[in-house]
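comment on this one:
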Amino acid sequence: MATKYTAAHESPNGPGDSLILITGCSSGLGIETVRALARTGATLFVTARDPYKAKAALGNLLESDKIHLLALDLNSFASVRACASEFLSKSYRKLNILIANAGVMATPEGKPSTASRPNSASSTPTSPSRVVFVSSAAYRISTVHMDNLSLAGEYDPWKAYGQSKTAIIWTANEVQRRYGSKGLLAFSLHPGGITTGSQQHVPDEVQQSWGADKSFKLRWKSLEQGAATTVWAAVAKALEEHGGKYLDDCQIAGPHNPETGPMGPGYAPWAYDEVNAAKLWDVSMKMVGLDGED
């Protein structure tokens, strides 16, 4: 179904022959992001945990010789390392744009597989110009619990989801602080409230309550509308001097007004917490075996 955003993607004159890597391309926002950026003529490497599901979802998009599908399970460092190695073996230019789109919400408590540490050389971006992190307004549920990142003994699906989305924003901000002067722009964003496969763990009664909430109804978006901010973050020339910003509704977000409700636009006070973002970066690097490396 066409929306007011559709026409903007008919002739975007975007990244052209750039090379773009997009995670989470087996459903929802990932598919729409691929569809929009494919029109620019860019070469796309798209990833999915289940390649068979992705092939079915992407359909004839994969007929293009400029779109390449890679297997990537972000719950496994071994899979991350394998995907990075495969990408490096198939790509012949630098990575221009990385879009970290993959995600899921309100999951049961669990831990990633860490038996195999990632290879630092494979994980280092080869001078991309932008990295885009898809977060969510739900980060306003919780800041990061620096003294208990795993929420051991106090796990709650929504607290964990909010914390993870705050962590995504802080990661984008820290990437900008560390690498902005080297030509790498980083952005985080809220795509909007969208019905996708990421809600597979959300109880039916909760999803029904969203449908009954008037403030939620006003903010709900189609997949095309939801992907618009991601695409804008990836290619908009207007953002060239604004790295490290949190975006929503295809604009740089201002402070959140509580009167607009939990789904309203804007950022919470801790979104730009530089001290804790730096701490989280250091802890994260140690967790994945990259401590001490730039």
The first strand starts at residue 19 and ends at 22.
